[in-house]
């Protein structure tokens, strides 16, 4: 193809005068701010100058997400960095050091620390920005086809508003395009929006047909916005005729064209004005609880620094006032005058700030970022958080709240797709009041999978296949069997084993005179028609495709291990299929290849939700096969083989308020207008016609159907009702389209109901049990009906077996019962064995301002809470209420778009990449694939991240305080003159190099307890809840310890050299060396698990100190006149006094801390210390003790504020139990409905 540059399109004639540029900028801004935009084709203006282009005011398609350019990187990055107050503070001190009357160091030397920190930060920012630049460059240079008399291959950056762009199958849309023409006869284009919202199901787009050559219309559209589901536009023809278009006619940038040979569109938005770019807000920033605590302690350090500087200033004033004469070292100015003591003390205040500035840890923030990166690396590389079936791992989308994972106190979880698989299996249905149980459908497959795997392992054959002429051996056991099992499980989700009686009923209905108008036929027509399922050929199916290089057919093997039906059901099934035209659903052949095998003309379905797909596959099982769907028609093949084309007049889409969906069609046989409606049972039953209110047969059908629905709900099935209404009136199409949803969805005829099973995910009960043992309260917020939610609550162990107490006398009644239970002396040391269940209507009342406090008082006394029939807004309100009122750390986990608000409101949001798209993942801080992964993410990684970072921050404050206090104590012996007894360069190296790496490795790699122990004893997680490891007490204890150690480190050398004539650096060198040993050995006491890396870093820091100091002392002759450190350390190392001082100072300084730890861990060891002792045992013995430790919680439930005592061989576990509360009475009222589970 011909390639053309962007310059060939714009032509010449562009004025570059400043006035013209300013005018164009103003006009462009005005054009972009208009509520409506008028766009025309660029074809008539091709080759003209830019000033004559009609769409020149709108942004080009090239994108730029990087912030910097090579020319302006330094000033822009400095501007960004100076937004941090800490950087402004240290730069200000460095500048202050250039003032002669207040300087404490050489001015140039004072700039080194902040320059190093800002340089490292600039390198990090530059590298990240360079990666964004490379990504932009790759995207801007992607090829696309643009029409200029014929289609020419150009780059995405060349696309302009007003161009015609052609996108072929499996290509990505380069800009927001108004669809004009497709290769499909119905002008339908299928797109996949997974790059935007994560949904992998196909969506249809359509519009009136236009050809680029004859397109002389004006496109009027709204100004750009970030709403992916809304678009307003109309096309005005030369004769002023207007054709409307909406979101169904817009191809969004980033979408992929599927199942369509090609599509042609008109560019309406380009570049940064496209909806996808307007939704690209970059990473979300959250401040962790530990970071907020860190800022408070930095303020305390500033206050402490102010006090120390004030003491220094006051001391300098008193020292000058007490001088009898002027000493020779006080130099006067050129006029021979000396500053007054008060003025000198004022100057000395600023000098002391410069001298003691490292009390504020300048490198702490950079170190915290490095530690978090290391922690995220360990989370991402944890194989236990990897899901083999989806080939995905945990995602860390928010990089700065990893430590919050270790402090969670409340978890709010969705049910469908979060606790359950969201892989729907059609289990039961009720038609015209008669139940059809489908007993053989959806049986447990665990026995089959186990048997099949064992059978595969018996094959001794090795499968060989070739890749690039290189032979690769693939073992049957390790490669083949998992793929086959996954394929079989996917087949089970779509497979429905028909009910024999229902098959016979459909056969009779088909042979009857009423034919297609029979209610049984209408029921399955409703299943096939009333949905948004997109039909595609099997060869284009993209989800769950197993990729092998050579197809492997397994025919005989599958037949041998398929689950058999009892009795004669198999033969009856076959006879029914043959007699009624129902296609058999047995899995005779499975093909594992890049393209799944399918019979000629077979179809597959792309559904927006798994339950829609389950209903369509159920209809297909009984012979009602959805063959095609266009914007104006639906084609269904009925059991007789006849294909019926229903004209679609209107579709009333499902929404969270109506809780139902309706499709208005014209029946191809009768010509009647029929409205098929499906939805939640409570939303459908109220729409029944007048006959259902009487005493006839229809009322009995409704009552029987409701009874079946209640039974389905008690079995934990998802329920839907199916209804229809026929319009025989002579309404035209326009009148029907104008009728509102409320007017249409009335006086409906009940057809039946369905029950769909949504199985629990693997290990959900164990995970919830472990989380509760960890002191975390679990709330489940779901939109399901109470019976279904309650069943799932028991199944996942959210609730224990007990009596259900219904209290509807406002909150006071239930709250009083719960209070009496807890005030009973026999329940003082027991955990709450009460669970609360509340529906959406009651919750709406409980969330009112005057009832919030009483609702929370009740909820916090319950072990778990189950909220059913709640809306997405209520979910977020509940999370916000608990977070703000109780001041606790909250975590929300969900998998769908209805969970986004809840995820964003919580302190930590976790999305599950399930069957409902990726909206929850895109809004989350962390993303996992299974609910069970939450256990290790919190109990192990959350605990480690919090304890590591908390201890590292405390150590950083201690380290800086201990070192800076050495300078402070020296001021008492130098007249508070701001003099330092350590060389300035060595002081800088001490914090930047000698003691910087060990705490970072401590924060990344320290491990107080093994992962096995943390998983085996979830109770250990409670140590991080509340204030956790890093709190007011631990901070000030460390600061007091720093003051003590600095006193020892200073006065041991001082007393040793007292009365001698050593110079200032000879005194400061052993003091500096002692402080290094004390600070590093202090860290050694804090390290819980030593590794080779720890040893290398610690010994390397000591070696680096001596190497650098020896080299510096050897080469620095006149570095710091008048005193110089030349050969100081060499002389010191030849003096035994040096070694004696270092040993005594180190031992005396660390002895109190070491003694305290020894006594504490021996007399009253914490649960973590005891768990560490168990870690050292043999695995079998350790597992036995862990089981006994956990068993204590089964017999002796302890308060959540305590940790249970670890097991001992003689420990008894009996405890009195109060049984009376479980028999509480039920109350009846009209205002509220609170359901309480009590043991």
UniProtKB/TrEMBL annotation:
Keyword Translocase carried by entry: yes
Molecular-function GO terms, alphabetical: ATP binding; ATP hydrolysis activity; ATPase-coupled intramembrane lipid transporter activity; magnesium ion binding
Reaction(s) the record says it catalyses: ATP + H2O + phospholipidSide 1 = ADP + phosphate + phospholipidSide 2
InterPro entries in the cross-refs: ATPase_P-typ_cyto_dom_N (IPR023299), ATPase_P-typ_P_site (IPR018303), ATPase_P-typ_TM_dom_sf (IPR023298), ATPase_P-typ_transduc_dom_A_sf (IPR008250), HAD-like_sf (IPR036412), HAD_sf (IPR023214), P-type_ATPase_IV (IPR006539), P-type_ATPase_N (IPR032631)
Sequence positions that bind Mg(2+): 414, 416, 895, 899
Keyword Transmembrane: yes
Active site per the UniProt annotation: 414
Cellular component GO terms, alphabetical: membrane
Residue spans crossing the bilayer: 85-103, 109-127, 294-319, 346-368, 1035-1056, 1062-1083, 1095-1117, 1137-1159
Membrane topology: Multi-pass membrane protein
Gene3D superfamilies noted in UniProt: Calcium-transporting ATPase, cytoplasmic domain N, Calcium-transporting ATPase, cytoplasmic transduction domain A, Calcium-transporting ATPase, transmembrane domain, HAD superfamily/HAD-like
Domain named P-type ATPase N-terminal: residues: 55-109
Domain P-type ATPase C-terminal intervals: 921-1165
Sequence positions that bind ATP: 414-416, 612, 654, 678, 718, 782-784, 869, 875, 898-899
Keywords of this entry: ATP-binding, Magnesium, Membrane, Metal-binding, Nucleotide-binding, Translocase, Transmembrane, Transmembrane helix
Record family assignment: Belongs to the cation transport ATPase (P-type) (TC 3.A.3) family. Type IV subfamily.
NCBIfam families: ATPase-Plipid, ATPase_P-type
PANTHER family reported in the protein's UniProt record: PHOSPHOLIPID-TRANSPORTING ATPASE VB, PROBABLE PHOSPHOLIPID-TRANSPORTING ATPASE
Protein name as annotated: Phospholipid-transporting ATPase
Protein source organism: Oryzias latipes (Japanese rice fish)
């Amino acid at each position: 193809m011909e390639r053309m540059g962007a310059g060939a399109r714009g032509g010449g004639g562009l004025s570059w005068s400043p006035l013209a540029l300013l005018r164009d900028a103003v006009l462009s801004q005005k054009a972009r701010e208009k509520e409506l935009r008028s766009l025309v084709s660029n074809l008539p203006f091709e080759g003209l100058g830019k000033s004559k282009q009609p769409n020149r005011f709108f942004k080009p398609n090239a994108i730029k997400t990087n912030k910097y350019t090579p020319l302006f990187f330094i000033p822009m990055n400095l501007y960004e960095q100076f937004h941090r107050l800490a950087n402004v503070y240290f730069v200000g001190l460095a500048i202050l050091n250039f003032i002669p009357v207040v300087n404490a160091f050489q001015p140039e030397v004072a700039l080194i620390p902040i320059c190093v920190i800002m340089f490292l930060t600039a390198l990090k920012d530059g590298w990240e920005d360079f990666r964004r630049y490379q990504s932009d460059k790759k995207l801007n240079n992607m090829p696309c086809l643009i029409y200029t008399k014929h289609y020419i291959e150009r780059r995405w950056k060349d696309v302009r508003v007003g161009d015609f762009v052609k996108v072929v199958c499996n290509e990505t849309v380069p800009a927001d395009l108004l669809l004009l023409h497709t290769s499909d006869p119905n002008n339908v284009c299928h797109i996949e929006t997974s790059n935007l919202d994560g949904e992998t199901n196909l969506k249809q787009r359509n519009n009136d047909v236009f050809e680029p050559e004859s397109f002389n219309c004006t496109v009027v559209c709204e100004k750009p916005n970030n709403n992916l589901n809304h678009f307003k536009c109309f096309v005005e023809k030369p004769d002023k005729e207007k054709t409307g278009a909406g979101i169904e006619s817009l191809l969004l940038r980033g979408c992929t064209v599927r199942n369509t040979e090609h599509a042609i569109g008109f560019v309406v938005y380009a570049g940064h004005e496209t909806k996808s770019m307007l939704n690209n807000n970059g990473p979300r920033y959250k401040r962790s609880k530990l970071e907020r605590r860190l800022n408070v302690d930095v303020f305390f350090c500033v206050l402490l620094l102010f006090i120390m500087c004030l003491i220094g200033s006051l001391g300098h004033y008193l020292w000058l006032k007490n001088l009898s004469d002027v000493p020779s070292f006080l130099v006067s100015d050129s006029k021979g005058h000396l500053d007054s003591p008060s003025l000198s003390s004022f100057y000395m205040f600023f000098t002391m700030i410069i001298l003691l500035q490292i009390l504020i840890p300048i490198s702490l923030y950079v170190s915290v970022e490095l530690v978090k990166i290391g922690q995220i690396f360990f989370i991402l590389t944890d194989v236990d958080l990897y899901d083999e079936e989806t080939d995905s791992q945990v995602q860390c989308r928010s990089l700065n709240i990893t430590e919050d994972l270790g402090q969670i106190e409340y978890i709010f979880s969705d049910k469908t797709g979060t606790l359950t698989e969201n892989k729907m299996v059609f289990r039961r249905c009720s038609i015209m009041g008669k139940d059809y149980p489908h007993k053989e459908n959806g049986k447990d497959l665990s026995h089959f999978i186990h048997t099949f795997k064992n059978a595969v392992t018996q094959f001794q054959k090795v499968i060989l296949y070739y890749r690039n002429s290189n032979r690769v051996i693939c073992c049957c056991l390790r490669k083949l069997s998992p793929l086959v099992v996954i394929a079989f499980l996917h087949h089970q989700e779509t497979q429905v084993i028909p009910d024999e009686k229902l098959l016979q009923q459909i056969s009779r209905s088909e042979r009857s005179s009423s034919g297609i108008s029979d209610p049984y036929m209408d029921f399955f027509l409703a299943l096939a028609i009333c949905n948004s399922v997109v039909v595609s050929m099997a060869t284009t199916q993209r989800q769950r495709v197993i990729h092998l290089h050579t197809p492997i057919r397994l025919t005989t093997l599958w037949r041998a291990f398929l689950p058999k039906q009892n009795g004669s059901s198999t033969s009856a099934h076959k006879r029914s299929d043959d007699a009624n035209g129902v296609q058999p659903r047995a899995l005779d052949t499975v093909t594992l290849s890049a393209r799944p095998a399918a019979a000629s003309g077979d179809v597959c379905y792309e559904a927006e939700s798994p339950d829609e797909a389950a209903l369509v596959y159920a209809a297909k099982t009984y012979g009602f096969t959805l063959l095609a769907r266009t914007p104006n028609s639906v084609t269904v093949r009925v059991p007789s083989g006849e294909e019926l084309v229903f004209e679609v007049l209107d579709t009333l889409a499902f929404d969270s308020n109506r809780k139902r969906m309706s499709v208005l069609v014209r029946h191809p046989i009768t010509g009647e207008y029929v409205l098929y409606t499906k939805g939640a049972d409570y939303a459908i039953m109220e729409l029944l016609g007048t006959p259902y209110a009487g005493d006839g047969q229809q009322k009995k059908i409704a009552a029987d159907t409701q009874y079946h629905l209640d039974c389905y709900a008690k079995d934990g099935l998802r329920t839907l009702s199916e209804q229809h209404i026929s319009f025989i009136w002579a309404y035209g199409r326009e009148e029907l389209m104008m009728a509102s949803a409320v007017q249409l969805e009335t006086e409906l005829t009940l057809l039946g109901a369905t029950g769909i099973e949504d199985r629990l995910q693997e290990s959900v009960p164990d995970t919830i049990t472990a989380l509760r043992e960890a002191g975390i309260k679990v709330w489940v917020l779901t939109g399901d009906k109470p019976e279904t939610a309650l069943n799932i609550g028991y199944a996942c162990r959210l609730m224990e077996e007990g009596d259900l107490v219904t209290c509807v006398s406002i909150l006071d009644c239930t709250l009083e019962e719960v209070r009496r239970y807890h005030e009973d002396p026999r329940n003082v040391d027991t955990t709450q064995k009460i669970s609360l269940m509340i529906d959406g209507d009651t919750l709406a009342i409980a969330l009112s301002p005057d009832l919030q406090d009483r609702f929370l008082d009740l909820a916090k006394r319950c072990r778990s809470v189950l909220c059913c029939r709640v809306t997405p807004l209520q979910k977020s309100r509940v999370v916000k209420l608990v977070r703000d009122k109780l001041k606790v750390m909250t975590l929300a986990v969900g998998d769908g778009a209805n969970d986004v608000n809840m995820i964003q409101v919580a302190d930590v949001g976790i999305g599950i990449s399930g069957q409902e798209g990726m909206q929850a993942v895109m809004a989350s801080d962390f993303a996992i694939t299974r609910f069970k992964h939450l256990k290790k993410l919190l109990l192990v990684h959350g605990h480690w991240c919090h304890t590591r970072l908390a201890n590292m921050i405390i150590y950083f404050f201690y380290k800086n305080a201990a070192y800076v206090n050495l300078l402070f104590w020296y001021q008492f012996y130098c007249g508070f003159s701001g003099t330092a007894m350590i060389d300035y360069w060595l002081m800088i190296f001490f914090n930047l190099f000698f003691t910087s790496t060990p705490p970072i490795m401590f924060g990344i790699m320290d491990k107080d307890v093994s992962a096995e122990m943390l998983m085996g004893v979830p109770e250990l997680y409670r140590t991080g809840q509340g204030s956790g490891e890093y709190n007011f007490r631990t901070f000030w204890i460390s600061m007091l310890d720093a003051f003590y150690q600095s006193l020892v480190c200073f006065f041991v050398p001082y007393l040793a050299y007292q009365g001698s004539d050593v110079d200032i650096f000879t005194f400061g060198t052993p003091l500096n060396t002692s402080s290094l040993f004390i600070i590093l050995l202090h860290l050694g006491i804090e390290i819980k698990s030593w590794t080779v890396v720890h040893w290398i870093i610690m010994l390397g820091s000591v070696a680096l100190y001596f190497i650098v100091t020896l080299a510096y002392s050897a080469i620095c002759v006149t570095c710091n006149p008048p005193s110089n450190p030349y050969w100081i350390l060499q002389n010191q190392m030849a003096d035994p006094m040096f070694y004696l001082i270092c040993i005594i100072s180190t031992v005396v300084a660390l002895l109190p801390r070491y003694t305290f730890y020894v006594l504490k861990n021996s007399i009253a060891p914490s649960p973590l210390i005891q768990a560490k002792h168990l870690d050292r045992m043999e695995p079998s013995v350790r597992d036995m003790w862990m089981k006994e430790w956990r068993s204590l919680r089964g017999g002796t439930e302890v308060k959540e504020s305590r940790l249970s005592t670890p097991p001992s061989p003689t420990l008894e576990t009996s405890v009195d139990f109060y049984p009376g509360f479980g028999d509480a009475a039920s109350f009846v009222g009209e205002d509220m409905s609170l359901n309480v589970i009590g043991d």
